[in-house]
Amino acid sequence: MPEGDMVWAAGRRLREALDGRVLTRSEFRVPRHATSDLRGRRVLTTESRGKHLLTRVEGGLTVHTHLRMEGRWRVEPAGRRTPPGDVVRLVLANSEWQAVGVRLGEVDLLRTEDEERLVGHLGPDPLGRDWDAEEAVRRLRAFPGTIGEALLDQRNLAGLGTIYRAEVLFLRGVNPWRPTGEIADLPGLVALAHRLLTANRDRPGIITTGDRRPGQENWVYGRAGRACRRCGTPVRRADLGPGPYDRVVYWCPRCQPEP
């Protein structure tokens, strides 16, 4: 699933192509909204909230999309042929540009005043205009499980996924199975997450090492069995555990000792 910085970048592309322009094409290719038509309405803006995108249009309506695992937005000149088959879920276009939502995991049309019903549960977004580091720390501190679980729970910190979780914990020397309540410097961990997402939002790919060469971008993510870049110990990979946070985790057993 794309991380928050990639979703933010998708939102920026949508803003550049659609903001302030009147829609001349509106195709919802999902059963729930198949008859909806936004043609003639001006797009106000697109905002990212964690891994969600909110495209607001005149008349108090919002198009909500979520990329999930395979979704993406293609922004291209208006009139270009869209991909064949049933992969396209949504098309929004004006006289200059078209935004094509491919394999989107979620597509909703709702009143703008009801947005909080979909995204109100999210924690602070490191890339949001209303970023609140203290609130993020408070939510993490109150989380009853491990830090590996806490960082993937979007109610604590919106936008982090498995890549940033692995990289942030490695750089802070924190084991993924360590209870969140035992971590003294949660503010430092949150500040690092904010810094990494901000550094990567304006360029493709996720770089945490500062090295953009293929295979050198990350410290531990995707490097199971390979030598830790700091100590040489083989990087490990495992499932975090049962429940909603059982996604793969990478860590160095020496740099991130067990609690």
TrEMBL record:
Please indicate if the UniProt record lists ATP-binding as a keyword: no
Superkingdom classification of source: Bacteria
GO molecular function terms noted in the UniProt entry: class I DNA-(apurinic or apyrimidinic site) endonuclease activity; damaged DNA binding; oxidized pyrimidine nucleobase lesion DNA N-glycosylase activity; zinc ion binding
Query: Quick one: a GO biological-process term for this protein?
Result: base-excision repair
This enzyme catalyses:
2'-deoxyribonucleotide-(2'-deoxyribose 5'-phosphate)-2'-deoxyribonucleotide-DNA = a 3'-end 2'-deoxyribonucleotide-(2,3-dehydro-2,3-deoxyribose 5'-phosphate)-DNA + a 5'-end 5'-phospho-2'-deoxyribonucleoside-DNA + H(+)
The record's keywords, sorted A to Z, are: DNA damage, DNA repair, DNA-binding, Glycosidase, Hydrolase, Lyase, Metal-binding, Multifunctional enzyme, Zinc, Zinc-finger
Domain Formamidopyrimidine-DNA glycosylase catalytic per the UniProt entry, residue ranges: 2-119
Q: Name one Pfam family in it.
A: Fapy_DNA_glyco
Report domain FPG-type positions.
219-257
Q: According to the UniProt record, what class of enzyme is this?
A: lyase
The EC code for this enzyme is: 4.2.99.18
Q: Which SUPFAM superfamilies match?
A: Glucocorticoid receptor-like (DNA-binding domain), N-terminal domain of MutM-like DNA repair proteins, S13-like H2TH domain
Q: Which family does it belong to?
A: Belongs to the FPG family.
Stored PANTHER family:
ENDONUCLEASE 8
- Specify the protein name: DNA-(apurinic or apyrimidinic site) lyase
